[in-house]
């Protein structure tokens, strides 16, 4: 058996793992983008959806036992919110106790207090904030696996420090890594990427270093935010 034939099963297995990880992260990125741009709805519409059993996830913010912001999902791709609910006294107040009654037995499964993203964290929030009913644990595990693979490999386009910044500050660097490293995922087994190497060099020259990766990660993060907002807006128009 030739070395090339011997490598073929390993390449096929590696490609399968990359496809699975990439599919999970793309799904998680889609759910995260849609959940970050929920469609405005009324409290009455939420209570009607809860009574009909359509609600699959709920997050809320409360003050002194009253809900003032409510986000819910009707399936992984349909996210709604109610903003500016009054607190204190009055007939329009929506206590957490009433929210509990509206959800009934589903309360402990569906509800979690809404929290602000931790801006002091280096690692991105979105792979670990996908709800459990939307394969949340699998998405988080896929991101961690891709990160460990990056640390244990010799990437072609950039060194590990460059990819570290793209994974973290860049938000979606894991997606790019799985698409491009060590060879573009769409290349066939007979096609090799062109690498700017000298005949005696074991590794490519001109790879991104840590500084370049840090700068690229800032642009990538801005592009990821813009894409998320655009996707959320389009989903709101299409899914209503």
UniProtKB/TrEMBL annotation:
Residue stretches spanning the membrane: 135-154, 161-180, 215-239
Spans annotated as Disordered: 189-208
Keywords, comma-separated and alphabetical: Membrane, Transmembrane, Transmembrane helix
Name of the protein in its database record: Uncharacterized protein
Organism: Planomonospora corallina
Lineage: Bacteria, Bacillati, Actinomycetota, Actinomycetes, Streptosporangiales
């Amino acid at each position: 058996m030739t070395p090339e034939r011997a490598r073929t099963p390993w390449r096929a297995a590696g490609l399968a793992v990359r496809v699975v990880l990439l599919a999970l992260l793309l799904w998680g990125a889609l759910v995260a983008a849609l959940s970050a741009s929920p469609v405005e709805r009324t409290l009455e519409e939420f209570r009607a959806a809860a009574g009909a059993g359509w609600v699959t996830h709920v997050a809320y913010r409360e003050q002194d036992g009253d809900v003032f912001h409510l986000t819910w999902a009707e399936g992984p791709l349909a996210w709604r919110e109610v903003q500016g609910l009054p607190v204190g006294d009055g007939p329009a107040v929506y206590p957490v106790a009433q929210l509990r009654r509206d959800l009934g037995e589903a309360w402990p499964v569906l509800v979690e207090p809404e929290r602000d993203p931790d801006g002091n964290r280096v690692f991105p929030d979105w792979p670990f904030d996908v709800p459990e009913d939307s394969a949340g644990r699998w998405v988080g595990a896929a991101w961690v696996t891709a990160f460990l693979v990056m640390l244990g490999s010799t990437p072609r386009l950039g060194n590990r420090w460059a990819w570290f910044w793209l994974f973290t500050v860049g938000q979606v660097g894991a997606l790019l890594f799985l698409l491009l490293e060590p060879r573009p995922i769409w290349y066939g087994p007979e096609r090799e990427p062109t690498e700017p190497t000298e005949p005696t060099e074991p590794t490519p020259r001109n790879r991104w270093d840590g500084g370049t990766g840090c700068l690229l990660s800032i642009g990538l993060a801005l592009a990821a935010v813009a894409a998320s907002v655009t996707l959320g807006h389009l989903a709101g128009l299409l899914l209503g």
